[in-house]
UniProtKB/TrEMBL annotation:
<keyword id="KW-1133">Transmembrane helix</keyword>
<feature type="signal peptide">
    <location>
        <begin position="1"/>
        <end position="22"/>
    </location>
</feature>
<keyword id="KW-0256">Endoplasmic reticulum</keyword>
<dbReference type="GO" id="GO:0006458">
    <property type="term" value="P:'de novo' protein folding"/>
</dbReference>
<dbReference type="Pfam" id="PF10681">
    <property type="entry name" value="Rot1"/>
</dbReference>
<keyword id="KW-0812">Transmembrane</keyword>
<dbReference type="GO" id="GO:0051082">
    <property type="term" value="F:unfolded protein binding"/>
</dbReference>
<keyword id="KW-0472">Membrane</keyword>
<protein>
    <recommendedName>
        <fullName>Protein ROT1</fullName>
    </recommendedName>
</protein>
<comment type="function">
    <text>Required for normal levels of the cell wall 1,6-beta-glucan. Involved in a protein folding machinery chaperoning proteins acting in various physiological processes including cell wall synthesis and lysis of autophagic bodies.</text>
</comment>
<keyword id="KW-0732">Signal</keyword>
<dbReference type="InterPro" id="IPR019623">
    <property type="entry name" value="Rot1"/>
</dbReference>
<comment type="similarity">
    <text>Belongs to the ROT1 family.</text>
</comment>
<dbReference type="GO" id="GO:0005789">
    <property type="term" value="C:endoplasmic reticulum membrane"/>
</dbReference>
Amino acid sequence: MLLPSAFSFALSLACFAPFTNALNNVTSLTGTWSSKSNTVFTGPDFYDPVTEDMKEPRLTGTSFSFTDDGYFEEAIYLAIANPTHPSCTQAIMQWQHGKYDIASDGTLTLTPIKVDGRQLLSDPCKYTNSIYTRYNATEIYKSWEIVLDEYRGMHRLNLFKFDGSPMNPLYLAYRPPQMLPTQTLNPTSSAAPKATAASKMKLKRSLPPNLKSAEHINADRWWWIGVALTSMGLLGYFCV
């Protein structure tokens, strides 16, 4: 039998452990979740599978959507700073969808439809045009939890990567979720080969089937973002 003090200690540990079971969460996983910028959302406002357009949000961020019957959609818009050359800041947009599974130990696995995923890469110091390719990446999250964020007064989804490190929190934006149809949207007999650094320039002249010409991400915006990120890095360096 546990002593009262030992019981209290065990209870406190349980309270701080990540929630890995839906019964422990304050709400369902179903819905559209978006990061703090609240400008990136899954659905047709991010990607149009008919015209093959990826629509640039105002700010960077991440969004996930989940259905009750095991489907997911993901939209990512991020910047990669280049402190040495601020004008060389990269911008990446990624979209994919497919099925998700929650294992008995709480592991969340996202398995995309391989032929549907898309990526748009802007690297102004290497390529004149943005590079538009197929994209798919199975994602594994070791655990997850849904809590009530008292500061924002919103439901917050915390995802922990396969190694246990936390992702940026996501906040419930829509329920039911804002998503494109869950079936294969651009079927093809075979997926295009994965692009490598050596082949990306070639892709601008010879794109995989069903992919249109590369689009432009706002270059001026990314130049100023690069300057800002570099300035923040220098400020942090001199303040240490």
